Amino acid sequence: MVLAVKVGEARKLIGETVVSAVRAGFTCEHEEMRYAERPAPPPAFQAGREKAGHDSSRVPALAAAEVESSITDSEPGMWFSYKVEYGHPPHIQLSVRSSWARQVAATGWAVLDGRAVLDVLEWDESVSPRRPARVRVALISADYDAEMHGWRAHADNRDLPVAWSPEGEPRLVMPWEEDQAGGSEAA
Fold it and tell me: Which one in 12, 57, 89, 143 has a CA-CA gap of 20 to 30 Å to 26?
């Protein structure tokens, strides 16, 4: 029973985290492209009918995400592709290992550094209790597609090292940081 509550709380937190990342991505795109001053024309092809999805002059409102999870024996991942034009709330599908509930959700590692954790790939056993050293996370991209869909977002699953501050705060080491440093700083 307690584990089921933790899984529900983890799914809710992941949903909030993804919606926050989408909102931040939309806001950044809106500001960088100066759409409030110079809106992009609506896409020539519009698959959905929700007008807010095709209006670049304002950042669309986002509903709470629907999050479901299932157990896999294959690669864990998040399947998330969201288009405002369809008028539905964001829907997130998590495919996680059977150990996710116990090792990630129940221990409070469902979100690290603002990203949803789909699996812990390596542990740092040098501290007690142990903590994640390498994780699979979902990176969220969000933008305005002036050619087809308007406001849209999706997830990209990535395996990333975790660097820990002396205060015990986690930071995910992004691929471009690894490349610059010639390897992982989290090792």
Answer: 12
Q: How far is CA 10 from CA 91, 106, 114, 149, 172, in A?
A: 15, 8, 13, 30, 19
> Cβ atoms within 10 A of the Cβ of 118, count?
27
Q: Cα–Cα distance between 164 and 184 in angstroms, integer?
A: 12
**pLDDT in 10s for each residue of the chain, 187 residues:** 467 779 999 999 999 999 999 999 999 999 999 999 999 988 888 888 889 999 999 999 999 999 999 999 999 999 999 999 999 999 999 999 999 999 999 999 999 999 999 999 999 999 999 999 999 999 999 999 988 899 999 999 999 999 999 999 999 999 888 766 554 444 4
Token reading at 41: 């024309």
In the numeric block, which tokens belong to residue 95?
């495919």
Separation CA 133–CA 55 (nearest Å): 42
Structure token digits, residue 15: 């949903």
How many angstroms separate the CA atoms of 36 and 112, rounded?
33
The whole-angstrom separation of Cα 163 and Cα 179 is: 15
pTM across the whole model: 0.91
Q: Where are the domains of the chain?
A: 2-181
